[in-house]
Amino acid sequence: MLVTHDQEEALAMADRVAMLKDGRLLQIATPREIYEQPASRAVAEFVGLSTILPAKVAGLNKLDLGFAQLAAPTGMRAPGTALHVLVRPEHIAADPAPGAPNRIAGRCGAQRYLGSLTRYDFEVPGAPKPFLAESARPATEAIAIAPEHLRLLDH
Question: With contact defined as beta carbons under 8 Å apart, do 94 and 119 qualify?
Answer without folding.
Answer: no
